[in-house]
Give the backbone structure.
Amino acid sequence: MSNKMHDSKEWLEIFPYGMSVSPDGSRPILIFKDKAEKQVLPVWLSPLDAGLAMQTSPTSKLTHTPHELSYKILNTLGVKLTKCLFVDIKGQHQFVELHFEGSDDLKKIKVRADDAMSYCLGVKPEFYCTKEHIKKCREMDMKIQESTHMGAARTELSLNEDHRKYMN
């Protein structure tokens, strides 16, 4: 892959590997790995997006996805999604650049990764990220897990409170 899209970054091709869940079971995580399976990129999804991603997986027996209309429109216009590059992290969200061929007006767009994954898995573009992005995602992943544990502790505290005192 040419580095002309983003100067001075070393791009690593990654592949969809599988689905996991957060330690508390509240959020699905789409796992990407490099060819040698040494670099791992977790992408946190909503349960809805995870379900759509599973529906577009090669092992799915379903023949129709919610993205069928989008696939048909872009195919009719001769537009093809070719690359999905993980390029940014803001807060607890990853962002990807989707690169298209076949249109003078649509070359690339930047969107949240969790919004794009089910569509991308159905179209099967090439996926890329940098080792620096993977490092930042590990840090974000640790923060998410810490906040999840903090939320679980707050939930336990509220469940143990005596709620009868609020009843008249």
Observations:
- The beta strands are 11-21, 28-34, 40-44, 80-90, 93-101, 108-112, 126-130.
- Residues 153-168 have pLDDT under 50 and may be disordered.
- The two ends are 69 Å apart (CA to CA).
